Amino acid sequence: MSTLLYRLGHRAFDRPWFVLAGWLVAIGIVIAGIALNGVSVSSGFKVDGTEAQTVLDRVTAELPEVSGGQASVVFVVPEGQRIDTPDRVEAMARAIDAVFGLDQVAAPPKLEPAAGDPSRVPENAQPFRPLMYDGAPVPGALLSARGDTVLFQFQFKVPTTSLANSDVTAVLDAVERSETGTGITALPSDSLKALEVPVGAGEVIGLTVAGIVLVLTLGSVVAAGLPLVNALVGVGIGVGGAYALSTVLSMSSATPVLGLMVGLAVGIDYSLFIVNRQRRLILDQGLAAHEAASRAVGTAGSAVFFAGLTVIVALTALTIIGITMLTVMALVAASTVALAVLIALTMLPALLGLVGERICSVKARHTRRERLADEAHSVADHWVKRVIKYRWPVIAIVATLLGVAAIPAASMELGIPTAATASSDSSARQGYDAISRGFGEGFNGPLLVTAEPTHPGPPITPAVTAKLIQALQQQHNVAAVVPLGAGRSGQLVVLSVIPKSGPSDQATTDLVRALRQPDLDLAKDNQVTLGVTGYTAISIDMSDKLAGVIPQYLGVIVLLSLLILMLVFRSVIVPLVATAGFLLSILATFGVTTAVFTWGWFGSLFAVEGGGPIMSFIPIIATGILYGLAMDYQVFLVSSMRDAYVHGHHGMRSVVHGFDQASRVVVAAALIMIAVFSGFIFSHDIVVKQVGLALAVGILIDAFFVRVTLMPAVMAIVDDRAWWLPRWLDRLIPNLDVEGDRLATLLSQRSSAQATVNDELSALSGNGSTASIQEPGRPQR
């Protein structure tokens, strides 16, 4: 492997413009794809194979006019004022009429207050009535009892995943007209968010911090710029390619963001490892930039290849879950990682070829010799020696700290986060609170309930529908029920059920489960079978499905990654220790994430207000990404220890020597990843915020507590037994030469041969003769 990559780096360095032209063509193809196909992403998603999705697919097939995406707009006025003044009602009526005039907006249903005993209306839900204009109700608009809030609810004709950005913008433009000169504020729901560029101030700050770390690590602005350029090209092609395919694949808005996160982090880190190795070869061994770059690609490039492979394996294993949304997210992220590896092995040496000897300044070359004498007194050397000296207490302390941090994970609540946890200055949170005050929390997450005749059974008549509505309104925790539509043959009736409780409340979950019971009295009495979908139902089903496949997923990635690490390290113990350390770090990561988003700890620091659920897919996708990235650090750190062992350092000396060689760049890489992921924590999107925090905390814990602290302590205890491999297994698995032993032998033989040629030339010159000596395999010029 190292010999192959050495040759690849050598040729890329020799022909930089040829290699760069190829990557420019790739960028051009992506830009052309976006220009021709456009971009189509949304906040909606499908959870295949669940009851909620099955019900929704049934509605789509039978009554497409009521199966479209739901949306709402809340109109509010300053406290103490009424919104139902003539001029304000007129402004809202005109805006609502304009919305219903749009091609993609369906006709409005009629929503009535909860019927029956008034005492059944909960304290947290206020009575409401239709908004009236010119003696007639305004379609889809409800006025709160206090007269300060209007809720406008409507449906699109198609799912939100099929909406173009122009469709959403047209709705926003229409409702915003009501704000002109009226004192009204229009607050659209999350489903009416226009497509946003997934890069903001937080991400820019993260990249800036990454750039500073690169300059401090590499000691040169030129050298520091190369990893950034490589990472940006990688995510440009990866994320741009995802956008270009978004009209063909159903893609959530979080998909490109995840690709951007992972692509930036690994793109910078992988290039950093190779550039750092090249500079060390130049400064420590006095090699020319050309030869140093080729050797760096051959050695550090081998580690990059296998580190990237573990991340790709962990991500692509998400496809076994069978959820289309997760499959697309995983493949996009895996593609950006693959691009980062390919760019680091081809484009980076080409750029190094353009930079040439300028990769190391004259000053750096002169001062390096002085620094070499001080390396025995470096921070890394002091740290690893202290860790080894107190290895047993270190292991106990780290295990205890991570165990305590993992405690909140037992209280993790999975679901779909609502605007209730968003920052109070966001329009989504303000709209959520306004709906809750004026109409009750349940209006933030209505349920879609279907009724079909029990087979064999008679069609559902209007009389049966009315009886069913009355029975549903008498169910515990139901605020209102409204018919949305019915099939002509009486085989399907669709109802909207408004709970009294909020979308994330346990009471709403209990209502969904109760309505799904096959022996429910109201269903048997009316000879119907009920189906439930909607926000809360989808959340429940997705959480249940993911919980069922997590053990299978973990088994797949752990098994495959153990095999990869066994090939890299030619060891049984090291892969097992690496995986055990990861289990500690991932549990602690889930604990911290739960404490912030579910318990509300340090919420103000991350613009999170109140506790709520963690997005159902985050634990499993964070596990995949963090496992792959943790193994990155394991490969770079421990492969250096193995290299020291192979070249004569045994016992604790190999741990100290290997740690001294690799820890600085591993720490820099971890800081870069933390900076990049932290930039996404301050996104307005709660899902992006949760992913960013989980990944940043996960890298912090795994890199600094597990890899650079726990791992040296454990390696010192197992001593040279760390590299034990049964003889039969040693003969069975191939030697991938990650440490570059074969490459070193080849280069040594080449140097000896060149020295012999030089001696012969000197001897011939001394005899007064001349000769032409040519390199084997090349024609004489």
UniProtKB/TrEMBL annotation:
It holds the Pfam family MMPL. Its main location: membrane. The chain crosses the membrane at residues 17-36, 204-224, 231-251, 257-275, 296-323, 329-355, 392-410, 550-569, 576-602, 614-633, 662-682, 694-718. The keyword Membrane applies. InterPro entries: MMPL_dom, Mycobact_MmpL, SSD. Keywords: Cell membrane, Membrane, Transmembrane, Transmembrane helix. Residues 221-354 form the SSD domain. It is found in: Cell membrane. It is a multi-pass membrane protein. This is MMPL family transporter.
